[in-house]
Specification:
By secondary structure, this protein is α+β, with helices and mostly antiparallel strands. The chain is 13% helix and 23% strand. Strand 7 and strand 8 form a beta hairpin.
Length: 290
Amino acid sequence: MIALLLALSMQAAAPAAPVTVQPADPLPADWVTMPDDEVLVMTLAGGGTVTVRLAAGYAPAHVGNIRRLAAARWWDAGGSVYRVQDNYVAQWGDATEKKPLPDGVVANPPAEYEWTGGAAPVSRLTRRDPYAEWAGYSADGWPLAGSGTATWLPHCYGMVGVARDLAPSTGSGGDLYTAIGHAPRALDRNIAVVGRVIEGIERLSVLPRGTGDLGFYKTEGERTAIVSVRLASDLPAAERPHYQYRATANPRFTAWIAARENRTPPFFVVPAGGADICNAMPPVRRMPAP
């Protein structure tokens, strides 16, 4: 018994194995805090929230509308998730399409589907994108795709777009959707992408599928009501959620790309040698507690 106790005490006193740092591991300084006015928090009936990071630098007119709609509490009365189409999108806003827009909200802003000049990738995937000449990442943590003359935000799982009617409609931002299935990349450059769900996507992706055309719910009772939509900057300081994106212009992120493109043993036997941008979305996280 004495020998057993002695052995156990020696095991307890043994130093912990050192943590191996990998080339793709971020440094603490690689995590950048998102501004509060880029974080949109939607609370649904029954509890739970869906948090969206707004792409203010890429669709400023549409995001400006969304901020005004949130400030006016436009979604809080009668807003709902009214469409859930399997392997495609979950959509929310005004199911009646009759609710007046608040003052200052532009019904059809400029089409912010792509841009020339401006934000360019600071890192890229090594293989050509199926829908673009290249795919990569912005300095502020967004996925990008582009050609020789234009750049755009791709329709990946969790990305948020503005629902619209047929052109020349561009959508006000009152009705939004997020991709909940295989990336619908054919929508790229046809609709304004205004953000990305960074927390709570499961609260939309698990909703019952609509049985009407295109996944619309047939009855009001099937919809999930929206309790509130707020910018984090409009919440009391103690209630604001804080998120961080990973910086993309450093050797560690380059190593992260290589690791996503070439998965390693013991599980992966054959490396793919490349990755789709939607399978290599830039990391985000909740800010760790101090």
